[in-house]
Write a structure and sequence with these properties.
The protein is an alpha/beta fold and 356 residues long. 45% of the residues lie in helices and 22% in strands. The chain has eight helices and twelve strands. Helix 1 packs across helix 5 and helix 3 packs parallel to helix 4. The radius of gyration is 47 Å and the shape is elongated.
Length: 356
């Protein structure tokens, strides 16, 4: 099955570092609406858990101070590197994240479960979570959450049968009924559709009510009796059942994950990956700065060459200044020669007249 298809059994819903309003208001309401909800208070546990349940929905509270906003981004982004973890339906919740970080998460990470900001209207906020879970098939085809009790003899029901106490160990339980292990000798007294008074011992929750025997059967050498709570079970007692189911689901999850290695990857701003990431981000700026510096050097050298070229003619003029003066003296001499040449012409005149 494609993990992004809706699972018939529904999807587990995880809240990582849920804030107070989620723990005390939203999660109980989701459980009441028959969603299988868990809380994880250690980010190193998230990947090992989701590896085991890769069709889950997971909401990260990025306001939790276990990581900075940048580290949370790096942590969530790293799920895309894993073929299994990349199938998780991620959502991000925040009450305080600055706009720049909100935009960063929404633009650069795929968030099928959205970016959910806190609003004071908790009923409306709860409804928004329910719509997100509906959209992502969290309910599946089942109608009720069921918690396995793993043959724990401290979890049992005493049924009143004709004035006699019949103890039954709970196999699993939902908010509408329970399945119990029974002694074969008691089966004849537990007829289908019969109603009995019962006392329920569910951990710290002890209450009384009525049950209706729905069916009895043999399963793997065990005698199983399936019962429904009567409609007369009070709202408070039904909430006690739901609270027990939540506690049992968390306990079972903790047992399943016992001994599983935690995520040891460093997502801090000082990690090798973060440093390499910053280097990659800064590379264009460094390259541009290097180009600018190179251009400045080239321009400086060009200006120097131009200055040297400009100085060269001036020096040449200085070197040729004396010959120029000599040239001027030659011109003065040449100008004086016509005056000297006129003297012979004057002298020649008398001689010419004498010849005449």
């Amino acid at each position: 099955m494609n993990l992004h298809e809706n699972s018939p059994l529904g999807r587990k819903v995880f809240f990582v570092y849920p804030p107070y309003y989620v723990t005390n208001t939203i999660m109980p309401k989701l459980s009441e609406a028959e969603y299988e909800v868990y809380a994880i208070d250690q980010y190193q546990m998230v990947k090992p858990v989701l590896q085991k349940f890769p069709d889950s929905i997971c909401f990260f509270n990025i306001d939790a101070d276990a990581l900075t906003y940048t580290e949370w981004f790096r942590f969530i982004k790293s799920f895309e590197e894993d073929e299994v973890l990349s199938t998780i339906f991620f959502g991000v919740i925040s009450q305080h994240a600055p706009k720049v970080h909100r935009e960063h998460f929404m633009a650069d990470i795929q968030l099928p479960a959205g970016f959910i900001q806190y609003i004071p209207d908790l009923p409306a906020l709860t409804e928004r979570y329910i719509k997100i879970l509906e959209l992502n098939g969290a309910m599946g085809k089942r109608k009720y959450i069921r918690a396995e009790c793993n043959f724990d003899r401290s979890i049992y029901v005493d049924i009143d049968v004709a004035g006699s106490r019949v103890p039954l160990i709970v196999q699993n339980i939902s908010s509408v009924g329970l399945s119990c292990y029974a002694n074969k000798s008691h089966l004849p007294f537990l007829t289908e559709n019969s109603v009995h008074r019962a006392a329920f011992y569910l951990g710290n929750n002890v209450f009384s009510g009525s049950v209706i025997i729905l069916m009895k059967r043999e399963v793997n050498e065990h005698s199983i009796v399936v019962m429904l709570f009567s409609q007369g079970l009070s709202y408070a007692n039904r909430n006690s059942v739901r609270e027990f189911i939540r506690e049992k689901l968390h306990e079972n999850l903790a047992n399943d994950m016992d001994g599983i290695p935690l995520d040891s990857r460093d997502y801090s701003d000082n990690s090798e990956e973060a440093i390499a990431e910053r280097n990659r981000e800064n590379a264009p700026a460094l390259e541009s700065a290097s180009e600018d510096e190179s251009k400045k050097t080239e321009n400086a050298e060009s200006d120097k060459d131009s200055a040297e070229i400009a100085e060269a003619p001036a020096e040449a003029a200085e070197e040729t200044s004396e010959p120029a003066e000599e040239a001027e003296s030659v011109e003065e001499v040449s100008e004086e020669k016509p005056e000297n040449s006129e003297a012979p012409e004057a002298d020649s005149t008398p001689e010419a007249s004498k010849l005449e």
